[in-house]
Fold this protein.
Amino acid sequence: MRAGPSQEEIRRQNLGALLRYVHVHGATARSELTTMLRLNRSTIGALTADLAAAGLVGEGLPNQTGRAGRPSLVVRPESERVYAYALSIEVDRLLAARVGLGGRILDQRQADRPRGSAPGDAVAPLAAFVKEMHHAVPPGSRYVGAGVAVCGLVRRADGMVLLTPGGGWVDRPLGAALAAELDGDGTITVGNAADVAALAEYTRGAAAGCENFIYLYGDVGIGAGILAGGRRVTGHGGYGGEVGHMVVHPGGWPCGCGSRGCWETEIGEYGLLQATGRQGGSGREAVLAVLDAAARGDAQAQTGVRHVGDWLGFGVANLVNIFNPEMVIFGGTLRDVYLAAAAQVRSRLNSMALPACREHVRLRTPGLGDDAPLLGAAELAFEQFLADPLASEGEPAA
Amino acid sequence: MRAGPSQEEIRRQNLGALLRYVHVHGATARSELTTMLRLNRSTIGALTADLAAAGLVGEGLPNQTGRAGRPSLVVRPESERVYAYALSIEVDRLLAARVGLGGRILDQRQADRPRGSAPGDAVAPLAAFVKEMHHAVPPGSRYVGAGVAVCGLVRRADGMVLLTPGGGWVDRPLGAALAAELDGDGTITVGNAADVAALAEYTRGAAAGCENFIYLYGDVGIGAGILAGGRRVTGHGGYGGEVGHMVVHPGGWPCGCGSRGCWETEIGEYGLLQATGRQGGSGREAVLAVLDAAARGDAQAQTGVRHVGDWLGFGVANLVNIFNPEMVIFGGTLRDVYLAAAAQVRSRLNSMALPACREHVRLRTPGLGDDAPLLGAAELAFEQFLADPLASEGEPAA
């Protein structure tokens, strides 16, 4: 219902569009920007000058050109100077990175995380990582914000983490807790790991150019980041995508959520280890050990992996009927399960999904591997910044 | 990635925004338009003048005012002069209406439809209705397009209907077939009944102002129209929302789609009649007869209705975990099932959906009753027109 934008809003929109283009595509010739953004040459020139004056882009000759004649100048994101902090709270590890405009990881830290610890317990070590990395930031650099990926239910309004696979709850918003620790300016955005991994795969991974796809992320539980029509499906409070709690097996195993037969009881880490007779183990390594045993001919492991692949395909077929996506990406432990049981997944999809709904769907592994949640956390920060890149100068985070 | 709009695009956007506002809200004071569209008074005046010159709005004094002083002029949609044709192909009936800007039904026709007939068979009777209504159109009226709601899978690109509850397929796009019959200008948009019913409820029904909701529509089968973040979730090819083929009961009843245990085998018309021991009947009246028997104390009917309500809640809980909606609307036969078994639905929702995902969800019956698909079909036509209302003068449809 909103009416059209003002001249100043248009200029900001154009600045954001240009900067986003080079953030996603890297160094880009002015001539390509003119075509892709449907703006004339002088407008592109003026916008580039504004962004360069703010230290957000640089201009120069392209690295190489196959053509004769004067080459078009390229516009490059200032990846070394303009950066965000990205943090990822995963089931078994904590990650922190300084990520430059353009998505380049400039610095990185990692630590193991005790299973079942509360998200709040991650605040101090992550803050320590950020402070450490901050000492190494070159003078004249510009901080634009921070993003956090967390395996748990995240309330969009304030980044409160409600529920995690370890069962812990926190009593205050994670973003605020981190901001307090970092003495930062509060531009810390928190998102669910699967949601932000989907954002990363959409920006510069397997789903680039896909407007309708589902990124399934598996660890102890199962979550999904879903894009429909190029927009993230986050739901009213930000909790959308809890596909792991879709009940597929009435009367099945009890789930940590209080229900029974949830999809993640069949295809999560516990379900896989249970199905293959490895109840004792846990963690990504235990999952990989089972898949390895199956690959080497262990009959019990093979039967179990096929069983889990069957349930994986079952749920995927349901989601394909609901969303009619172009692509389903299997991330986290589901990447390995999918690769080991692709035949079962495809068979279920073919027998359970409507032909029209599955017609164009491609099944894929992540383009960004296990870094997707971390890179997505950086995109959360860049997303806000790119909406209005000249709005204000960022404050240092630490 | 698209850059900001040009001056002319902004003007069109503003014209569309103003006209859409009065289309949705009816006669509106200029002062309210100024506030709601965030444009200044002179811009509102100029836009109104342009729209009035094109015969799309009229201006006048408000019908009544409780305040002293000179009242602000109101801008009214020209509902008698500017119209769309709306057609609805439902399982048991065909509906056609002439709908004025603002959503007012100006003329209407209805016929029974034999069950299981192909969508193509509906073309001739619907075209006859349109021609009939067209004779009564006052001189000087303006046709803006036609929309069709159809209970079946609809390909977005061309309006091809792929699959209907009767099982029929058509060999050419329904929109093109209707356009050929009507000698019209081809502005016929086809949509799935649940999708367009959701659009109607969002525009002027129970879901007005709700950005995240699910409209469940039941007849022989079950479909959903889903809005996420204010956008319809239609999927890659337009087939999204086939929630009736979400498998909830592995090894359950065989479904017409070739799978087993689909949600609609439990809660569709057939499932309800089966569960209540009324295998012989069919149609809305048979469903209402069962619910009536349950209300009057028939034990077998009561047990069956509770059983169906339980499965209805089961699937709703899954969808709530996936979409975290603000509202679920029960339309078609599901309206009556929900009203008869609300306790079962709520009980399942409370035991199966995550507290965060169901926290703010409201369960509702449609605001527009059984007219939602028909009114939604009109909105499909208006949606296109309102995107650029002064683009061109419409051609008569027949």
Observations:
- Chain A has a mean pLDDT of 89.
